[in-house]
Amino acid sequence: MIRLGLRLAVSGGREAVVRLVILAAAIGIGVGLLLTAVAAVSAVTTQNDRYAWLDTGAPATPGRATSATGRDPLWALVTTGEFNGQTIYRADVAATGPTSPVPPGIPHDPGPGQYYASPALSALLRATPAAELADRYPGHQAGLIGEAGLPSPGSLIIVAGRPAAPMPHLPGAAEVTSFNTTPPSGCASHNSGSHPRCVTRAGLGPAGTDLVLSVVALVVLLPVLIFIGTATRLSAARREQRFAAMRLAGAAPRQVSLIAAVESTVAAAAGVAAGFGLFFVLRVPLAAIPFTGQTFFPAELSLSLPDILAVAAGVPAAAAVVARLALRRVTISPLGVARRVTPAPPRAWRVLPLLAGLAYLGFFTVHGKPASPSGQVLAFVPGLALIMIGLVIAGPWLTMAGARVLARRASRPAGLIAARRLADDPRAAFRAVSGLVLALFIFTVTAALIATQDAKRVAPVDGAAASNTLIDQFATETGSGSTGGQPATMRAVGGAPAPPASVLARLRRIGGVRGIVEVRADPGQTIAIPQLHLKPGYPVPPAALVSCAQLATTPGLGRCPAGAAAAKVTAFLTDTPGGNLTGFTWPAAGIPARRLDSLPLASLDVATNGSQPAIEQARTVLENAYPAGTGTPQTLREITAEDNAANNAYQQLADVVILTSLAIAGCTLAVSVAGGLADRKRPFSLLRLTGARLGMLRRVVALESAVPLLAVAAAAIGTGFGAAAMFATTEMTQSLAAPGPAYFVLTAAGIVLALGLIAATFPLLRRITGPETARSE
Q1: What's the DSSP call for residue 209?
Q2: What is the residue-averaged pLDDT of the chain?
Q3: In this structure, are strands 140-144 and 114-117 parallel, antiparallel, or unpaired?
Q4: pLDDT tens digits for 414-434?
Q5: What's residue 159's pLDDT?
Q6: DSSP secondary structure of 688-754
Q7: Closest Cα partner for 542 from 610, 473, 488, 595?
Q8: How far is CA 469 from CA 515, 543, 618, 633, 775, in A?
Q9: What are the pLDDT digits (tens) for 261-299?
Q10: 752 CB contacts (<8 Å, ≥6 apart)?
């Protein structure tokens, strides 16, 4: 039987070859997408792990020095800087002996006056005038940082050598005997079970990797698996008839099942091979997509041996099982297939899994989410999975309900025929649109959550004066507070020495610098201004003082009352929405301007004309005047972008998920349409012979697709909003925000495009429903 099955699969004439090629191509696309999704999740985890060493020396982060190691310690200070909106990670190191630890990616610790740079930063140093960037890193480049020390090909990282003597006096410097190896995903901002408390500088925390990636994997892998299952059922009706003929000729049920399994396994094996080839073709362009905000090394998009074995063996095995299940009517009654015995209609119990998924999420909405990220995964991922599976299970019943409504309202033959065909096999009718239904659910949930996330974004900076002001703020972290229900690091005003006259002179010589403000700390004082709307969750900020003469040169930071010599301002100007202070009047301070020089410096702010050379040259002067560890000079626009960086990264990830799910849905629909054309050949040909017009058959095809699509799509969209509302309330501690008009336009456009794809098959109806088709059958 195996040899006969192989012969029928590859030597059964042109129809068999075409069927084999179509099956292999469809399964190959599905397998390629499946492998790509698995590799992408692995790449995100690998990239996140490479941020670990950049957290060395951060408060409460593993990697601090211990006396039991017996190694020479290394002084390390990791800080961040900016260049044209890009973050630069800088590690200043000073070895104290030959056994001091070495950062990953370089052969040895750089000595004073040496530095190693990442390839992207090295290229940037060569392409940029020295006064704008290279002058921040005195010395010469000793080499490049290798891939082991880089999270991304585009990472801007520098490891600079320093003398050991001044390192203990730099704020934030730590003496370590090993570099941190705990990735951001294993490091929580507060104590949470298995995740120790630590402060991370970059990467995704436990909530990002455990929860977000689990949900992403779910919403990508499940549609892909449905697509593969749909592909294995191509021409199912034609194969049922052929195998029924074998049963009538005397073949035993086991023999028919074995032949069907061999035929499907051959096609699946060929598809798996094609899928692996497609994966290796897609790997390089996929690595260039920054769906976490950073691109990937192609080697990171790799597959583990268990992944390879699971796909290589699982897909053919699944195809054989699907083939066996598809022939259950042939095995039980071959005459039943030939006579098209109507299967039992789907029952109402099919909506129970969908309701169970909603109830599962509702439980945590009422009782609250678990504290640990792993607990949150168990709270949300099974609920979303149950809802998605529930939509697939409930789809045939909803299709049946739509068919009954159509039958009651139909007044023309096309509607009656379509309703009868839908009622005859609602499972097959729904299967054609199942991928699109899941895509609509995913799109609805994602769009609603993005809109909710956008609602708490920091407002953009208004006005060129505010966005072009460079602020070097001196603050120290003091502990944890709460922002919107989430832990937040609080700050206290730091102190820095007054800028030397030479530094102020260099700043004023830069073309494009308009003014300089020295913001002085006002110890023990706070400022509460009702008209100044601070970021939610922050306490009344500490106060600071400025000279009105200096403030007049920086309109982006506000203004003084008429006649005042000094004004009282908030020490953290960046805590205002978007840093937008243009036109704001600060209250007058009862202090002579000459007394300001005796107060500690809270920040040094430089107003520019907004040109990149002016901003970067001023930033270089500030970084050299106030060395690493005292603050990062940033424009208000950059500070706003930094506040929104996590939201932007999640939105990019969401966009990729949406596009991927829509592409998978399109493939599923295309495969289903192709299979449906083959399955409709005989019944539609017979209808043509009985006098049915071609236009009526087209209306039948349109209704057969539109009814299940619209009926189940309405349920998917409604369920999506419900699931998003529960997730937003529980995980984001916010009320659900309605998505913008673009969501509704894109949803309508997707449904119209799906119907258009079905309508594109209408010209083929004339070819496949001619008299010769009925005769050949």
Answers
A1: I
A2: 78
A3: parallel
A4: 888 888 878 887 887 888 788
A5: 95
A6: HHTT--HHHHHHHHHHHHHHHHHHHHHHHHHHHHHHHHHHHHHHS-SPPPPP-HHHHHHHHHHHHHH
A7: 473
A8: 9, 20, 10, 10, 81
A9: 777 778 788 888 998 999 998 888 888 888 777 889 998
A10: none
Which pLDDT belongs to residue 204?
67
Report which secondary-structure segment, H or E, holds 143: strand 140-144
First to last CA, the chain: 25
| Of 190, 81, 188, residue with least CA distance to 642 | 81
Beta bridge mates, 159: 91, 116
Q: Which residues pair with 176 in a beta bridge?
A: 74
Task: Give the C-alpha separation, 619 to 598, whole Å.
Answer: 25
Spatial separation of the C-alpha atoms in residues 78 and 427, rounded to whole Å? 59
Tell me how far CA of residue 154 lies from CA of 40, 104, 106, 180, 346, in angstroms: 18, 17, 17, 22, 54
| d(C-alpha 507, C-alpha 45), whole Å | 43
**Amino acid identity, residue 293?**
G
* Highest-scoring range by mean pLDDT, 34-38, 256-260, 336-340, 621-625: 621-625
What stretch of H or E contains 489?
Answer: strand 486-493
DSSP label of 207: I
Q: Residue 236: pLDDT above 80?
A: no
For 486-543, the pLDDT digits (tens) are: 333 334 555 677 888 999 999 999 988 988 988 888 876 767 665 555 555 556 667 8
- Residue pair 662/749 in contact (Cβ under 8 Å)? The answer is no
Nearest to residue 543, comparing CAs of 574, 571, 585?
571
How is residue 399 written in tokens?
């299709």
Burial class, 97, CB count within 10 angstroms (exposed 0-12 / middle 13-18 / buried 19+): exposed
For residue 450, give both structure tokens.
């993005």
Per-residue pLDDT, 2: 57
C-alpha torsion angle, residues 144, 147, 150, 155 (rounded to 10) = 70
The string of pLDDT tens digits covering residues 136-194 is: 998 899 999 999 999 999 999 999 999 988 888 887 888 998 888 887 777 654 444 45
Neighbours of 702 (CB within 10 A): 16
Token couple for 769: 């429903």
* Percent of all residues in the chain with a pLDDT value above 90, rounded to a whole number: 16
DSSP conformation class of 83: E
Residues ≥6 apart with Cβ < 8 Å to 115 = 137, 139, 140, 141, 142, 158, 159, 160, 161
Q: Which residues pair with 606 in a beta bridge?
A: 470, 516
Cβ neighbours for 714, distance < 8 A, ≥ 6 positions apart: none
- Say if CB 167 and CB 94 are below 8 A apart: yes
For residues 413 and 333, is the Cβ–Cβ distance under 8 A? Answer: no
Residue with tokens 């049946």: 400
Q: Which position has the higher pLDDT, 585 or 187?
A: 585
Give the per-residue pLDDT at 374: 67
Residue 459 has pLDDT above 50, yes or no: yes
**Cβ partners under 8 Å of residue 82, min gap 6:** 88, 619, 632, 633, 634, 638
